[in-house]
Design brief:
The chain has a single domain, classed as 3-Layer(aba) Sandwich (Rossmann fold), CATH 3.40.50.360. It is built from 6 helices and 6 strands, in the order βαβαββαβααβα. It is globular and about 60 Å long. Strands 1, 2, 3, 4, 5 and 6 form a 6-stranded mixed sheet that branches. It starts with a strand and ends with a helix. Helix content is about 40%, strand content about 15%. Helix 1 links the parallel strand 1 and strand 2. Bound molecules: flavin mononucleotide (FMN).
Length: about 220
């Protein structure tokens, strides 16, 4: 069984990447094969609306766009479980995550009444978002609704269960004193890093175990 993690943060060893590594650690402990891929550095676009994926021919591709994402999409569709991690950027997923999900999900999606997915198997999936705001802010700004909406689509299109996890109040800068950032209380952020983030990592570990077990 294979669990693939996609890091849609440009930072390869900060909050989102760390959370994904923990989720994969959980999955690996159940015996799953795991791999973490960083989208930053790859050259790709979002969906180009060519509709090659919607053609009636039997061998219509999942996605016809030829760029760095194409083999990764194929790998994702051949995996048993998929976890996409993204920071919240201006109330949305990062552009990397949006492009990846557009290409992955639209490629599998059909406009058929009887079956909205071209997939024959099922892929369990999860979304993890890291963000500056605290739990109350996440709800106030509707980031929970954003993740809920995407997991519903992922569940329909990938034909497996889908869950989301929010990691709030993250440490954004190693040293807040170096940046224009007076809205943040650096002491509070350090405290969250020391006391809350380890709990978030435990939740990520549990999510990884769930992903591996849900895809059995
Ligand atoms: C361009 C940009 C926009 C951001 N917008 C938001 C936002 O709207 N809401 C929020 O809570 N955090 C926002 N953040 C903060 C990040 O979501 C947060 O620091 C996240 O944990 C970063 O993930 P990383 O450490 O994996 O890069 C933004 C950060 C950047 C760089």
């Amino acid at each position: 069984m294979k669990v693939l993690a996609i890091n849609a943060s440009p930072r390869k060893n900060w909050n989102t990447a760390t959370v994904l590594e923990k989720a994969l650690e959980g999955a690996a402990e159940t015996g799953a094969e795991t791999r973490l891929v960083h989208l930053h550095g790859m050259r790709f676009t979002g969906c180009v609306s060519c509709f090659a994926c919607k053609r009636l021919e039997k061998n219509a591709p999942f996605c016809a766009v030829k760029d760095d994402l194409r083999p990764l999409l194929e790998e994702a569709l051949a995996s048993d479980a998929l976890i996409v991690g993204s920071p919240i950027y201006f109330g949305n997923f990062s552009a990397y995550a949006v492009a990846f999900l557009e290409r992955l999900l639209f490629g599998c999606y059909t406009y058929n009444m009887e079956n909205p997915s071209k997939l024959e198997g099922r892929i369990a999936s999860a979304i993890v978002c890291t963000m500056n705001v605290d739990d109350a802010g996440m709800k106030r700004y509707g980031y929970d609704a954003l993740m809920e909406r995407y997991t519903r689509t992922m569940s329909a299109v990938l034909r497996g269960p889908s869950e989301w996890l929010a990691v709030t109040d993250t440490l954004q800068f190693a040293d807040y004193s170096k940046y224009m950032s007076s809205v943040f209380d650096p002491e509070h952020k350090e405290l969250m890093r020391a006391e809350k983030f380890p709990k978030d990592l435990k939740a990520a570990h549990a999510l990884g175990v769930w992903l591996a077990e849900a895809s059995e």
